[in-house]
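For the sake of transparency, this paper describes our internal protein records without simplification. Because each token names a local backbone shape, the row as a whole describes the fold. One such record is reproduced below, unchanged from the form in which we store it:
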Amino acid sequence: MRHITPLLLLLGLAPPQHTVGQETYQTKFSADLATVPAVRDALAYVDSNFESQVQEWIRITQIPAKSEHEQERASYVRRQFEQLGFEVTVDAIGNVVARRPGTGTGPTLVFAAHMDTVHPLDTDITVREEAGILYAPGVFDNTNSVANMIAAARALEAAQLSTKGDVIFIGTVQEEIGLRGMAYWFEHNPGVADMLIAIDGGLGAVNYGALGIYWSRMVFNGEGSHTNSSRGKPHPALAAAQCITDIYNIPLPPRDAPVSAVYNVGILSGGHVVNAIAQEVSFTVDLRTVDPTLLAVLDTAVVNTCKRIAQEHRVEFERQWIQKNEAGGRPEDLEDRRRHPIVQTAVDVLEHLGWDFRGRPAARASGSTDANVGVTRGIPSISVGRSRGGDQHTLQEWAEIEPARLATKQIVLLVAALAELADGAN
């Protein structure tokens, strides 16, 4: 069934299927698709221009783009899409939105690559290349994806690959602080996206779920006191310290459970002088799981722990939200999402390109990317990887160069399969 003729594929007839275990999943990819001249030429363009792509990857990495300060990088991205003749806009929050019109009657396919990084603007982001690896803060997360997306768009234009559906490329902002740019685009463009693909993460994983992420600031307040008169006084710092300890005693499912959870206290702050009880002390909690019920239960346990300890220490407590991204659901809750052709198509594209999943699941009901915004809105959404890399959000961040070639070809084939080649495409 997977080796159908290009004609049937282009007409949207008899969709191929792929059997995984005992499940059969529809796919829109066939090896025949890669032999269509325009598709073949686009893939060849990626190969012949890969060195230029790597140089651009380095160039973009060296443009500072901390969340909420992506303007310079956004200007660069905008210029590249404008030079391709796309319809380009920058919305009120700062997303760069480039539309490549289709011929009509096809689904609108959206790609998102977030432009922001976590690193302060004064961070040394000079890229160092050694033995086929690039080293620099932000080089993997997520500059790699931005460069891949632009390169794929150039390949489509160079090959004059025509699709029925519109393809929208979005360089999103503020992903690292709550997927804000993607959420803004969806709120102001209802009904536009038929499918969403976030380009983010390590190459090989196809994620179709959404990790629920709750970020909170737990704030403890008291009257304060000079050290000399502090004994026995309400103490926000002591309350916060005990609360952190007790939070880490809240039981979690085992790490190897089908659905687990994780939390972390990341930022501690408070006080202005050494010789006084701080009047305000706070810490942040990052809570994550794909299970909406478990997310709610754990969140309630964390907040109730803080309330109880604040009362015991005679201080005031306030929970302040930083971000609240809801969970997409457990694997059994997302069976319909797994059956949507977007998932198996992405898996089949990777297999066609020779990717070795090394015995790991090819598709996972998780994800912590811009795709989460689509998942929780009921829009068929996945995230796909950008290369191999590691040490994200640190000064030692790195990314392998060569896998980015395959990741870019992945985008080209996803466009051809999911946005549907236009009638008469060759």
